[in-house]
Structures are given as C-alpha cells and as structure tokens.
Amino acid sequence: MINPNPTISICIVVFQENMNMLGQVFAHLKTAISKTSSAQFKLYIVDNHPLGQLESPLTTLAESTVLYEKNLAFEYIKTGKNIGYGAANNVAIRACESDYHLIMNPDVFVSADTFSKAIAYMKTHQEVGLLTPSVYGVDQTRQYLCKQNPTLFDMFLRSFSPNFIRKLFARRISLYEMREKNYDQEIRDVPFPTGCFMFARTKVLKKIGGFDERFFLYFEDADLGRRILKISHSAYVPEVKIVHQWARESRKRFKMFCIIIRSGFLYWRKYGGLY
Predict the structure, then answer these.
(1) Backbone angles phi, psi at 7, to 5 degrees
(2) Which CATH superfamily is 7-147+182-249 part of?
(3) Strand extents, DSSP E, the chain
(4) CA 115: distance to chain centroid?
(5) In terms of CB atoms within 10 Å, which end of the chain has fewer, N or C?
(6) Around Cβ 145, how many Cβ atoms within 10 Å?
(7) Under a CB-based contact definition with an 8 Å cutoff, are residues 195 and 223 in contact?
(8) Whole-number Å distance between alpha carbons of 197 and 32
C-alpha cells in the first residue's frame, strides 16, 4: 500500500564546509520541505571531521532555518574521524526508518518542487528503486551526469586527461556521458547515476547494505548504482531538477588525486574493464 504521507530522510555528509554555502543549501531545503506538507522529513548531518568542529555552527544554522518547519526533524551525528563518504552515509542509512532516503552533497540546491515531483514519480513507478535528477550548474548549464559503467580508460579521460586528449576522444566521452540520449526525457536504468543527489527507496538501500565502505571517496556512487540495478530499477527524471555547485577537487589537491586513483583501481578490481 502506498503511504499518502511518506517519510523522507535526508543525509548530508560534511567535513570542512563553507557555512555560507550550507546556509544556501538549507534555505533551498526549507522552501522545498515547506511546499511538501504531506510528507515528514528527517535531516541527518553527519560530520566526518575528527574534531567535529561544525557542531555548534551547524546546529545554530539549522535552528535558524530548516528547524522552523513543522514537518522536519534534525539530527547531528559526529563520527569522530574521517571514516569516508560512503561509510558516513551508511550511518544515516542504518539509522533511518523512512519510505525514501536522499543522499545529497553539501553543495546542492534543490528546487521548490524537487520533493513533490520526486515523490509523485516514485509513487507512480513502484518498480523504480532509485531516482536521479536533471542537474544544472549555477549558470544553468546542463551537467551530463548519466553515465555508462566506467573503465579505467574512461576514468582517466574524464578525471585527469589534458584538453587535447579529451578532444581526441570527444566521441568516447560523449558516449560515456550518454549524450546520445535525450536529457529532456526519462532515461531508465542508468548504469552510473550521479552521486550528488540519489533519491532512493530506503528498503532498497538497506537491502543492498548501503555503500561499499571500501570506497573512501569517488566511484562509491557508481558502485551503489550498479548494485541497485541488480535488485531494482533506476530512472533519470528530468522534471526533478537541482543545481550543483561542482568543484573538481581531484584537480586541485594532490591528496584528492591519490584518493581518486585508489578508488578507480578498487572499482576496476571489483568489476573489471580496462578499455
């Protein structure tokens, strides 16, 4: 039976976040939640910083924005160390008791109708376990984030290759990003959905055990989407829209560069695929 008043849990994992950015994220959540009065929400903030330095400012920020919504509960969780993105999300996945669970980056702005449209779609399509949205940058440029399962070569092309290499393999990158598809129409069973906003049935996430915690950061979303397709379906739904303030950390910091290489090889060892 479909719950006419669904429950939705939301998890945002933080480490060293810009509080001004989080304020904007919370403000957008507040608007979307206030316009989805038929649903009950619970927001989990999982702090991966070893010192938990964001507890006081985050709690204050939440109290000044989203906590005024009557249909929203809030819980701050301090991990005590950086346990990795997937592991931190699993803390909330194990704790939540909801119909739907949203895994969301701390740099995503939801639209006012994001939740109402996502819920409506999932109610109509009971066979779908994961919804992935249409994603735009702050300049309203579309981001092509429906992708094929990556090979090691695809990972290199998209993450590290210089522009002249990317131009040589432009067609391959285009196919990897599924640009032959019409991004204004629904796309079923996306092999590699974006990890910045994953709106899933909670029972599906719990059935697969959440994220594979061997992935500290990067490609944990590719692995999760792949495992969901073994027991359910996924769908790219263009009517559900978000804005993503995307930053290429792997290009900026050597540590991130090393982490993405490690995750890439872990993914390859798990699934194979050189070229």
Answers:
(1) -105, 135
(2) Spore Coat Polysaccharide Biosynthesis Protein SpsA; Chain A (3.90.550.10)
(3) 7-14, 40-47, 72-78, 100-104, 108-110, 128-136, 142-143, 187-188, 197-201, 233-244
(4) 14
(5) N
(6) 23
(7) no
(8) 15
Longest dimension (CA), the chain: 54
Task: For the chain, give every domain's residue range.
Answer: 7-147+182-249
DSSP state of 147: B
Give the whole-angstrom CA distance, residue 92 versus residue 265: 27
Residue for token pair 């990972």 = 155
The Cβ of residue 95 has, within 10 Å, a number of other Cβ atoms equal to: 15
pTM: 0.94
- Do 119 and 86 contact (CB within 8 A), yes or no? no
CA 165 to chain centre: 29
pLDDT in tens, 10-59: 999 999 888 889 999 999 999 999 999 889 999 999 999 988 777 888 88
Which pair of tokens denotes residue 74? 């809030």
For 184, other C-beta atoms within 10 Å of its C-beta total 9
